[in-house]
């Protein structure tokens, strides 16, 4: 923890709140409100991440932890709790508006505070985690009941099931006794079991758990019975943890929409106690929001996921991939360039990477011609260090990508025994290691960010169509195909889709650069020309492959054969492997 | 029935007559282009070209005047695949920011010209970029011919440049995927002013005859990328029309190229697109 912690008490009507402040009071203030059955200690991790940039304030809410509060439920109405919040803000930042962050019940209280009439003078921004405004929730439930579509019924039922404990808390005596009789002791094990998160228990947990039941009893039924139409002009960011057992995404996303002027709903990967489990991530999201020009005039442009979050509210008319970042390797020509352009046309920002700087620069020009933003990188995908540096550079300059297209690849053809070790090293380096590095470096970033994403790997019809002339190439592409299938199974839990694209004979310059092993330079040149001609007459352009790639990302397709020969090859490989083996003996280049 | 196209290269006087016909054609395209306003249709534009040329004494066309607007400059139809029927002028209306291509080929006293002219109404960044890059083809083509390439090799070099630039070949949509064709003097008067499939009957007759006679010598009056074009360019006049596109915009120029035994040069440099590139300082 940090050195300059100050603790003091703020006396309020009916209680005394234990407040802690951290960091330089001249910096903007961030006020963190804890939930149930936690104390302000739940924020320790987030505080240490924020303290360098902000004056951070936490407090135990009334009756909880080191704070004193009334013995009966009428002392715990949201009105009182919001009064407390204003009182603390007035003491720690007199006359200056603050940034508010609430988790669980802290978020419920903060909603009450920011939906008061004069809230815009007190609060600059509000980040809500796992705690809805009770009025919004009640109105949302009612609207679901008034127009009972099957969808609305399902989402309401889901939320009702998730709220079982609220009903339990209204039983007389029992819940409070259970807390006192040992639930508190078991609490860390329970949280560990359902969330996989280690929470530290406070000494006051059994009292807090029991006292906190009053929060529910004082507010739930009155708010459900008589919800108020409470709205706010304070910009609100709602972080919705995936796998939150208590607040469903539907509720968190939809309920506040009618009552907020500027709402940004963003998914974060983690459970309900994400503020403990991923403190750094939460701090990062708070920083991104409060420092951006949404909240701070003259601040930097909001990160893409914030812009997208705004779009989801239907406030802007956008193209499909607007405010998304797409990385394409081998984007200097062929399928890579066409893919970069196809995504650019759909509004994405593009990271154009190629080993050929001139070709990549040209793709950048074309992307910009379509009105999209492009970032230029020269990189050899076969090099681990180069790829790691590249990925880091991309993160710094452009952010975490939403789509990564591992496209860079080379061709090779000829007899196995004429294929030298260095030929193998080269083709496996680019075609296999290039994909591994791309998936490794960017996959890690995507997982860490927790907002999902998509990885597209360019395999080939050769991945499942054996041929005596393509041993090296087919081997490399078969590896890419299998890697994609395995990754897909592994990454789905992070919300990251993985697609393998298997094109047939596509007219690109891969045929002009393919190495035909075992041939003299002159023979090679002739073969290249002939094959290039054949591919051109096949007349299947890279643009069509690019369209299929965009479609694969759109609907998360696992394996996409492109062009008739690729589909036929797949059918033959499945229906009659014997026929495929026979066809493999034909030498089309001979 | 004499026919001077093909093997006999035109003399200086004939070249001068072709140059005049070409200048008239470009004057026509420029004038009609400058007068195009939002709302005008392709048919109206073609009609204006025809009117202009008739008023200037033209009796016959190598092919009827063509006008393409918007995505049709890139030979794209918004309603489905492109067919040869789509080349004919339609009722598509010109709008602000749209590119257009005018293509006309007046025959003056039997001297054929065939030109293409690209323009835009208002601003269009893609058009500007395409137009700037189109200049490279005017340098590349005579250069490759002088270097001794066959027509098919020049065609492949053009394809490579298009791929490098990241554009699409649109001349590959023309019948026979041709980037050019031979032209000359048509002295026959029979069938003048009669057309089939948009081409003058005289054109079709001449072309048909040449495909046979040249074919015997292993050459073709049509310039494409296939086997038939694997020969050195036949000395004479060639109308060359590189047509490139990006997304829904296409641009082209079409001019007469003089090919002699050891040289190749454009018949005239005083043309709208060349002046444009000189003004921009582009290497034309």
Q: How would you explain this protein's 3D organization?
A:
The complex is a heterodimer of chains A (590) and B (284). The longest helix of chain A has 29 residues, at 421-449. In chain A, 48% of the residues lie in helices and 16% in strands. Chain A is an alpha/beta fold and 590 residues long. Chain A is elongated. Chain A is built from 23 helices and 17 strands. Chain A folds into two domains: 5-312, Rossmann fold (3-Layer(aba) Sandwich); 325-583, 3-Layer(aba) Sandwich (Rossmann fold). By secondary structure, chain B is of the alpha+beta class. Chain B has one domain: Creatine Amidinohydrolase (Alpha-Beta Complex). Helices cover 35% and strands 20% of the residues of chain B. In chain B, the strands form five sheets. A five-stranded antiparallel beta sheet of chain B has the order 11-8-12-15-16, sandwiched between helices. Chain B has a three-stranded antiparallel beta sheet with strand order 1-4-5, with helices on one face. In chain B, helix 1 crosses helix 2 (42-55) and helix 3 packs antiparallel against helix 4. Mean pLDDT of chain B is 91; it is low at 1-7. Classes of the chains: A alpha/beta (590), B alpha+beta (284). Chain A binds chain B through residues 333, 337, 341, 345, 359, 362-363, 365-366, 369-370, 509, 536, 541, 543, and chain B through 125-126, 129, 159, 163-166, 168, 225, 246-247.
> Any low-confidence stretches of chain A, pLDDT <50, length ≥5?
none
Tell me what the CATH architecture of chain B is: Alpha-Beta Complex
CATH topology of chain B: Creatine Amidinohydrolase
CATH superfamily of chain B: Creatinase/methionine aminopeptidase superfamily
Biggest sheet statistics of chain B: 5 strands, antiparallel
Q: Which sheet architecture does the biggest sheet of chain A show?
A: 8 strands, mixed
**What percentage of amino acids of chain A are in beta strands?**
15-25%
The overall strand count of chain A is: 17
């Amino acid at each position: 923890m940090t050195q300059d912690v100050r603790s003091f008490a703020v006396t309020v009507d009916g209680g005394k709140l234990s407040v802690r402040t951290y960091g330089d009071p001249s910096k903007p203030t961030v006020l963190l409100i804890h939930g149930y059955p936690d104390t302000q200690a739940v924020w320790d991790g987030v505080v240490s991440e924020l303290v360098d940039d902000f004056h951070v304030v936490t407090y135990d809410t009334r009756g909880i932890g080191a704070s004193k509060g009334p013995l009966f439920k009428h002392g715990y109405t949201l009105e009182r709790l919001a009064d407390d919040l204003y009182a603390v803000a007035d003491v720690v930042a007199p006359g200056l508006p603050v940034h508010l962050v609430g988790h669980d019940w802290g978020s419920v209280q903060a909603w009450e505070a920011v939906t008061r009439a004069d809230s815009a003078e007190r609060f600059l921004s509000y980040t809500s985690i796992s705690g809805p405004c009770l009025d919004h929730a009640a109105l949302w439930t009612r609207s679901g009941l008034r127009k009972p579509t099957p969808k609305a019924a399902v989402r309401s039922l889901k939320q009702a099931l998730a709220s079982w404990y609220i009903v339990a808390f209204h039983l007389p005596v029992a819940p409070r006794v259970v807390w006192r009789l040992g639930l508190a002791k078991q609490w860390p094990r329970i949280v560990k079991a359902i969330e996989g998160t280690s929470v530290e228990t406070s000494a006051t947990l059994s009292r807090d758990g029991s006292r906190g039941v009053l929060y529910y009893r004082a507010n739930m039924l009155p708010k459900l019975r008589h919800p108020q139409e409470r709205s706010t002009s304070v910009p609100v960011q709602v972080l919705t943890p995936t796998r939150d057992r208590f607040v469903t995404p539907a509720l968190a996303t939809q309920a506040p929409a009618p009552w907020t002027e500027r709402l940004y709903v963003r998914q974060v990967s983690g459970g309900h106690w994400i503020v403990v489990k991923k403190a750094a991530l939460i701090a990062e999201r708070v920083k991104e929001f409060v420092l951006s020009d949404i909240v701070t005039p003259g601040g930097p442009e909001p990160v893409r996921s914030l812009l997208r979050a705004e779009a989801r509210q239907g406030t802007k008319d956008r193209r499909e991939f607007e405010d998304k970042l797409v990385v394409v390797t081998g984007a200097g020509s062929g399928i890579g360039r066409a893919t970069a352009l196809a995504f650019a046309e759909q509004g994405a920002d593009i990271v154009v990477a190629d080993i050929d700087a001139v070709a990549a620069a040209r793709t950048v020009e074309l992307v910009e011609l379509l009105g999209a933003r492009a970032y230029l990188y020269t990189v050899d995908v076969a090099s681990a260090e180069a790829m790691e540096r590249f990925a880091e550079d991309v993160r710094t300059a452009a952010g975490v990508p939403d789509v990564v297209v591992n496209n860079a690849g080379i061709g090779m053809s000829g007899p196995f025994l004429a294929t030298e070790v260095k030929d193998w090293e080269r083709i496996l380096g680019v075609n296999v290691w290039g994909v591994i590095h791309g998936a490794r470096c960017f996959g890690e970033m995507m997982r860490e960010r927790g907002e999902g994403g998509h990885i597209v790997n360019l395999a080939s019809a050769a991945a499942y169509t054996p041929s005596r002339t393509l041993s090296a190439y087919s081997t490399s592409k078969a590896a890419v195909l299998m890697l994609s299938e395995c990754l897909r199974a592994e990454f789905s839990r992070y919300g990251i889709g993985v697609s393998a694209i298997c094109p047939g004979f596509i007219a690109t310059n891969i045929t002009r650069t393919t190495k035909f092993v075992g041939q003299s330079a002159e023979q090679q040149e002739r073969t290249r020309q002939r094959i290039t001609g054949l591919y051109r007459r096949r007349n299947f352009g890279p643009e069509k492959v690019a369209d299929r790639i965009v479609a694969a990302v759109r609907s998360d397709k696992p394996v996409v054969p492109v062009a008739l020969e690729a589909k036929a090859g797949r059918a033959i490989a499945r229906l009659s492997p014997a026929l495929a083996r026979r066809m493999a003996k034909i030498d089309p280049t001979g | 029935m004499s026919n001077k196209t093909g093997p006999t290269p035109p003399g200086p006087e004939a070249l001068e007559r072709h140059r005049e016909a070409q200048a008239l054609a470009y004057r026509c395209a420029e004038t009609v282009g400058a007068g195009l306003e939002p709302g005008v249709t392709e048919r109206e534009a073609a009609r204006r070209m025809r009117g202009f040329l008739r008023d200037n004494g033209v009796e016959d066309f190598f092919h009827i005047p063509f006008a393409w607007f918007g995505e049709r400059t890139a030979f794209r139809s918004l309603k489905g695949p492109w067919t040869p029927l789509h080349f004919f002028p339609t009722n598509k209306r010109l709008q602000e920011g749209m590119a257009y291509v005018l293509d006309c080929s007046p025959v003056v006293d039997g001297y054929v010209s065939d030109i293409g002219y690209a323009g835009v109404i208002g601003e269009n960044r893609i058009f500007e970029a395409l137009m700037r890059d189109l200049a490279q083809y005017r340098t590349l083509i005579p250069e490759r011919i002088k270097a001794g390439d066959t027509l098919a090799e020049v065609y492949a070099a053009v394809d490579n440049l298009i791929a490098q630039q990241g554009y699409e070949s649109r001349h590959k949509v023309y019948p026979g995927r041709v980037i050019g064709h031979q032209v000359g003097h048509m002295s026959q008067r029979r069938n003048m002013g009669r057309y089939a499939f948009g081409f003058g009957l005289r054109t079709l007759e001449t072309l048909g005859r040449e495909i046979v006679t040249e074919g015997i010598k292993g050459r073709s009056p049509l310039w494409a990328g296939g086997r038939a074009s694997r020969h050195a360019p036949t000395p004479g006049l060639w109308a060359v029309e590189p047509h490139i596109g990006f997304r829904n915009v296409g641009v082209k120029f079409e001019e007469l190229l003089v090919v002699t035994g050891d040289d190749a040069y454009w018949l005239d440099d005083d043309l709208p697109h060349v002046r444009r590139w000189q003004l921009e300082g582009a290497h034309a």
